[in-house]
């Protein structure tokens, strides 16, 4: 990592040698700032075009493996008619990038990407204006191609985009709106461009926070409580201070951190601290979770209420009432939370693997009692976040220790700390009642959702009478965002019940969905695409082969999945052997990039579906290592066939999370097809499968 740039300010950026500097303001997301300079540069995307036609693009998003770095470069290259190789991306640096709320919700391309496209088109059109003035012609007589602006009737008369800047900083206001290149002329967008950082990642040259090295840097370890809610009463640090390699033990109120020459020495010294804790006397038991959630539930929101629920249910020929459960789930990224902090000239610079550098900048400033202007967060490549890398605890620990010793300090969580001291995906309890008329159509849908939220809670189907309510509960564990938020839990409940109703009515699972999708032709098209790719044959009853279907929507994308499973009746083990996933995400920037996200979402979703469950008791996490919290590995990956349903006339939609929504329901439905047993509680552990096969699926499991 180039540490020489750590003190580059925005004002200094504007003084860099040559090139067209474009400021692009998006009022809808503009953020209040503290002074005139901050207000002036409160833009959503900007770029610099150098005289040699190289382009630097600055965005506040971070690269976490989704491929957005490459997709952003493709968008810029397309509008400027340049090769992707001429684009340099600067991402997630609070001193160099425009403000951004965070990298989550599959928003990178469908929001920032759209804004970036307009910004780059603005830059190109400004240069066309300048070329018209230079050549003394009308703008309409000029064409832009291969990074050059030429007279349409005399291609030999041309000038490159970079040459137009003449090495000067140029500020102009575009007359009118930018002219976006038509999709029909796209050459770069829509192509499977290899990842810009791909070779560096596979060769080990890519730098993550843990790879950053600064002169004189030290390592820190922070003291954690023995259980949730414990308060530090006193701490004898005398033995830790004498431990080998320890430079200092930092104590600030309840924070205790050890600074040492090596990370192992810091952790060994931490074990020598004699701490006295006041622990919670009674912590909710995992065994009583569902009763506890119901008991403490408070109305939160009515997501949708249309028609008349009570008359609809009363007038139904058949009423189905089911309850679904999903467990607490950990994020379990391969790269644990890490941060490297240094103080120079009373300013804090921190390398952090956060998903939200600007939010973390504000959190750190507030916690340390300094101005946000005195904090800079730099985010290198992030080794997975999945919604879990927003907690500022680690970067705050590094900052406190670095300030105390006057040298850079690196702090990284161990695997056990990562799996214990960060928030979890909420457990969910979902009650649904639905009524079916004599013609086999659902005419009423009533869902109550406890603890997990409303994302994906509204069924995608055109039910005439429907109501969906969410309830806030007191969670025993700290919970927060997880890939797709509540979408996978809500889609599990919706699609599992849709499949059950179809089966009870002796209707084909796919046709039953299509019968209710008169309101969503895009999803219907995606359902048909998945069925065609799989070779689906209509079936009025279960086949015994272990094939399940589910579909869903999220962030503008439509997705449908068909799963094949094998169930070992002697052990209860479920193995997913094949997945067909069809997704329609509007205009596709990089097909290979979206397919990677679809595959990753499917494999990640198999974890909570089949094995991932956070176990706890007495305020302690029991699943604090991969041997106790087994995530899917490459050996568990099924054959995955991706189908991209074309829709290039629409804007890009979110693509990072939709495919994780239906996978658990598709697996549950496939288990039913194989065994004739319905599993309504995730994960579908072998012991739960065995209980279902024995006819005792309602029995409680030991924690």
Structure description:
- This protein is α+β, with helices and mostly antiparallel strands and 703 residues long.
- Strand 15 (338-344) and strand 16 (347-352) form a beta hairpin.
Strands of the widest sheet, in order across it, are: 10-11-8-18-15-16-17
Percent helix: 25-40%
CATH topology-level name of the largest domain: Aldehyde Oxidoreductase, domain 4
Mean pLDDT: 91
SSE topology:
Elements: H1 10-14, E1 20-24, H2 36-40, E2 45-49, E3 55-59, H3 68-80, E4 87-91, H4 108-135, E5 142-145, E6 148-151, E7 154-160, H5 198-203, E8 218-222, E9 231-236, H6 238-242, E10 246-252, E11 255-260, H7 263-270, E12 274-278, H8 289-296, E13 298-306, H9 309-314, E14 318-326, E15 338-344, E16 347-352, H10 357-368, E17 375-378, H11 393-405, E18 409-412, H12 415-420, E19 428-436, E20 442-450, E21 465-472, H13 487-504, H14 509-515, H15 521-534, E22 547-554, E23 557-567, E24 574-584, H16 591-610, E25 616-617, E26 620-621, E27 639-644, H17 663-675, H18 686-693
Parallel strand pairs: 3-4, 8-18, 16-17, 20-21, 24-27
Antiparallel strand pairs: 1-2, 2-3, 5-6, 6-7, 8-11, 9-12, 10-11, 13-21, 14-19, 15-16, 15-18, 19-20, 22-23, 23-24, 25-26
Helix pairs in contact: 3-4, 13-17, 16-17
């Amino acid at each position: 990592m180039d540490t020489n740039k750590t003190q580059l300010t925005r004002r200094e950026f504007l003084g860099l040698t040559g090139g067209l500097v474009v400021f692009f303001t998006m009022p809808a997301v503009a953020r209040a700032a503290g002074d005139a300079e901050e207000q002036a540069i409160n833009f959503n995307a900007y770029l610099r075009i150098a005289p040699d036609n190289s382009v630097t693009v600055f965005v506040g998003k971070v690269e976490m493996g989704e491929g957005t770095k490459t997709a952003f470069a493709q968008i810029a290259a397309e509008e400027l008619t340049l090769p992707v190789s001429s684009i340099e991306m600067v991402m997630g640096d609070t001193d160099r990038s425009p403000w951004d709320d965070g990298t989550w919700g599959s928003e990178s391309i469908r929001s920032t990407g759209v804004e970036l496209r307009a910004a780059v088109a603005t830059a190109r059109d400004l240069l066309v204006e300048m070329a018209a003035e230079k050549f003394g012609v009308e703008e309409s007589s000029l064409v832009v191609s291969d990074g050059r602006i030429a007279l349409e009737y005399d291609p030999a008369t041309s000038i490159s985009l970079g040459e137009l800047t003449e090495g000067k900083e140029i500020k102009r206001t575009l007359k009118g709106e930018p002219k976006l290149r038509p999709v029909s002329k796209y050459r770069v967008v829509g192509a499977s461009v290899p990842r810009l950082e791909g070779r560096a990642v596979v060769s080990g040259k890519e730098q993550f926070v843990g790879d950053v090295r600064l002169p004189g840097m030290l390592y820190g370890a922070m003291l954690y409580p023995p259980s949730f809610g414990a308060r530090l009463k006193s701490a004898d640090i005398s033995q830790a201070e004498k431990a080998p390699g320890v430079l200092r033990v930092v104590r600030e109120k309840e924070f205790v951190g050890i600074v040492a020459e090596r990370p192992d020495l810091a952790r060994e010294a931490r074990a020598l601290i004699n701490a006295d804790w006041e622990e919670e006397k009674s912590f909710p038991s995992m065994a009583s979770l569902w009763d506890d959630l119901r008991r403490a539930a408070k109305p939160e929101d009515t997501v949708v209420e249309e028609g008349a629920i009570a008359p609809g249910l009363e007038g139904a020929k058949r009423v189905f009432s089911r309850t679904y459960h999903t467990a607490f789930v950990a994020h379990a990224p391969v790269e644990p939370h890490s941060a490297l902090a240094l103080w120079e000239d009373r300013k804090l610079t921190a390398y952090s693997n956060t998903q939200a550098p600007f939010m973390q900048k504000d959190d750190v400033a507030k916690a340390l009692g300094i101005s946000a202007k005195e904090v800079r967060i730099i985010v290198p490549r992030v080794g997975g976040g999945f919604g879990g890398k927003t907690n500022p605890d680690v970067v705050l620990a590094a900052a406190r220790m670095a300030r105390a010793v006057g040298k850079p300090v690196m702090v990284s969580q161990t695997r056990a700390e990562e799996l214990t001291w960060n928030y979890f995906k909420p457990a969910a309890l979902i009650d649904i009642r639905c009524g079916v008329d004599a013609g086999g159509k659902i005419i009423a849908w009533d869902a109550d959702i406890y603890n997990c939220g409303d994302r994906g809670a509204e069924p995608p189907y055109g039910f005439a009478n429907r109501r969906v309510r969410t309830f806030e509960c007191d969670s025993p564990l700290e919970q927060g965002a997880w890939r797709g938020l509540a979408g996978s839990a809500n889609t599990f409940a919706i699609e599992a019940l849709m499949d059950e109703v179809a089966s009870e009515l002796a209707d084909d699972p796919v046709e039953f969905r299509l019968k209710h999708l008169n309101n969503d032709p895009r999803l219907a098209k995606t359902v048909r695409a998945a069925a065609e790719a799989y070779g689906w044959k209509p079936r009025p009853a279960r086949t015994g082969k272990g094939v399940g279907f589910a579909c869903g929507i999220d962030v503008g994308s439509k997705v449908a999945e068909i799963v094949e499973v094998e169930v070992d009746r002697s052990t209860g083990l479920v193995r997913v052997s094949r997945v067909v996933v069809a997704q329609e995400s509007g205009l596709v920037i990089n097909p290979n990039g979206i397919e990677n996200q679809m595959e990753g979402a499917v494999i990640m979703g198999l974890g909570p579906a089949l094995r991932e469950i956070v176990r706890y008791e007495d305020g302690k996490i029991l699943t604090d290592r991969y041997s106790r919290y087994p995530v899917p590995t490459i050996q568990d990956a099924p054959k995955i066939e991706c189908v991209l349903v074309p829709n290039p006339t629409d804007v890009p939609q979110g693509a990072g999370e939709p495919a994780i929504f239906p996978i658990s329901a598709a697996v549950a439905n496939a288990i039913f097809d194989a065994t004739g047993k319905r599993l309504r509680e995730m994960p579908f552990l072998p012991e739960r499968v065995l209980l279902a096969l024995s006819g005792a699926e309602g029995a409680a499991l030991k924690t």
